[in-house]
Amino acid sequence: MVSNRCKMMVKGELKKLGLHFIIIDLGVVDIMEDITPEKRQLLKTGLLESGLELMDDKKSILIEKIKTAIIEMVHHLDEPLKKNFSEYLSEKLDQNYTYLANLFSEVQGITIEQFLILHKIERIKELIIYDELNITEIAWKMNYSSVAHLSTQFKKVTGLSPSHFKLLKNKRRSPIEEVGNLS
Description:
This protein has helices spanning 4-16, 37-49, 58-76, 85-93, 97-108, 112-130, 135-141, 147-158, 162-167, and strands at 21-25, 28-31. By secondary structure, the protein is mostly helical. The two termini are 17 Å apart.
């Protein structure tokens, strides 16, 4: 789950099945009662019809937690991190970063860093489109060491400089759910 719309869909499916939840957060649902295999299958089917997936294995769940942590950090934090990203992720998920990075690469086909960069670029596009911050402020907000570093990375991913992107009439953005998916 990567958006409020996804959370609403999950709530709806749980309600249909008469299940009560303690928390529905990005990528996590805590259900109050024990779920029967039949209800679990109904939930899985209902979620699939909505374009969502119920994850059962620990590796898939951990991959989703990594993605969720990156999305929360890039799209929802207002202040830049005070520590490096690998330390932040390792502490947040209580796992060794090397293990997380190897697992993510193996399953997703891209590195955690590449996934992070793709999300940062989407967020930068959004901030450019909103036109509330200048490029220096965006660089600070997105935790870049300099405007030059942001510009280089932006151009490498999009093929355009941030200033050229700002001039485009049809600005190309991707839904958060699609950023970093190779399928």
